[in-house]
Design a protein that fits this description.
- The protein is of the alpha+beta class.
- It is built from two helices and five strands.
- The protein has one domain: HIT-like (HIT family, subunit A).
- It has a five-stranded antiparallel beta sheet, covered by helices on one side.
- It is globular, with a radius of gyration of 14 Å.
- Bound molecules: adenosine monophosphate and zinc ion.
Amino acid sequence: MQDCIFCKIIHREIPAEIIYETDNVLVFKDIRPAAPVHLLLIPKKHIPTFFELGPEDVMLMGELQTAAAEVARRLGLSNGFRLVSNIGRDAGQLVFHIHYHLLAGRELKWPPG
Ligand code: AMP
Ligand code: ZN
């Protein structure tokens, strides 16, 4: 997608601090961290929101969650982490390319508000 900021990161058209990459998934640091560890996990396939997910994406979304596990192990986040996705307007989604936020490094309040 031409005007998608995360697609531009995937194609190295804008910089990001990339933490982990596979054929289908990219993990990089959030530019405005809300916790000591704040990563974004994205599929390389451009899908705007969870509303557009279909049966063809089952493996891909599994890979995305498994990437979260792998990154958490590598970073030693044994105290825990939060994996969240903001979907649509009411949740405050700003970038319309599916992503999970991985937050860690401090006690995380619940509910987030
Ligand atoms: P949201 O769509 O509300 O779930 O959040 C999008 C997230 O992307 C925000 O936390 C932003 O700080 C982050 N973000 C936006 N642009 C960039 C960028 N160029 N590099 C890294 N993170 C970004
Ligand atoms: Zn995109």
